[in-house]
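Second attempt. The first submission of MFS transporter had a stray character pasted in from the spreadsheet, which I only caught after the job came back as garbage. Lesson logged: always re-copy from the clean sequence file. Corrected sequence (407 aa) follows.
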Amino acid sequence: MTVTMTRAGRPAPHRRGSPGYTRITLALFAAGLTTFISMYSAQALLPALSDGFAVPPGTAALAVSVTTGVLALAVIPASVLSERFGRTRVMVCSAALSCAVGLVLPLSPTIEWLLVGRVVQGATLAGIPAVAMAYLAEEVHGADLGAAMGRYVAGTTIGGLVGRLIPSAVLDVSTWRWAMEASAVAALVFAVVMTRTMPASHFFRPRQVSPRTVTANLALHLRNPDLRVLFALGFLLMGGFVSAFNFLGFRLLAEPFGLPESAVGAVFLLYLAGTVTAAVAGRLSDRFGRGWVLLTAVCVSAAGLVTTLPDNLASVLVGMLLFTGGFFAAHSVASGWVGALATAHRAEASSLYLCAYYLGSSLAAVGAGVAYGWGGWTATVGYIGALLLVAIGLTLTLPRTKRRQAR
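This time the job returned cleanly.
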């Protein structure tokens, strides 16, 4: 691959429109696909897992929560490994191991064995999201980082969509085991695409790391008030998003909707809204500033959530469209902002954001299970709405604290 060079004869960061930029964004797009297919294909199977193993919805939902929870804890060690052994090497190894686990998960004889397997898959999968943002921040020119991050997040939205459509379609003609196997094969295909297209790192320099060094780097980022707000936003937004989609399927399968499995799976086509909004929000943040784009995205997500309350299918679909589009736009801006604020030790900064992000997916979703069991969809919306109100309040602090860094 031809590498753009500076006048001093050194590699130049990839700029939008260059061959290197195309390859790196394609590779990270595929990385987002394999990550989210592996992570969230079980979400479309929750009602089937509940029936197949004769467990309540809250227990079935652990098939998602345990994976994201363990991944949250593993992203920091994975980022440390990337500092020593390289960004691309860690991502490739992570993809290979997680796909191998995914291929054997459908053989699980009990829900306990399935949950153990999902724990292992979460640990092996952590290397991709832990490193991807730092890799982009190092290799892409700062002026084009927002757009590049938007493409990566767009890949996660497509991955989330494909990871739900495939098992939903297979469920109509077979069992949840074959549905999960089909998803694992799809994740493997995109892992191969990622591996074959990913450019080598030109700006990464391996460093010796120790627990003391890692702790100091993490503490450095946690002392930054803007980064702390972004970490909290990752927790709240992802927690609310996963909570909604975990229990949307149960609502649509029950009365008054009574939709078949394939129709419920098709609802995940709403992820396409996130594919568009993530990329658009990344470009808008480069042009107009991150702060106001982030605030607008969170408010749109909250408005969409309220729209889902009536027992009317059109209202539910429109509301989830807004909710999904707003979430992915907000995530695109917030994750890109972390990379922009953390000019040193970016891997640790990205891992802190992702640790909070996936802890939200795990811990907040457990609370949503309690809410759904107590008061159905209305209580779940109230729970998620409370998370979004806190997120709006936090977002309002960002333009006020460092308005210049919103540019």
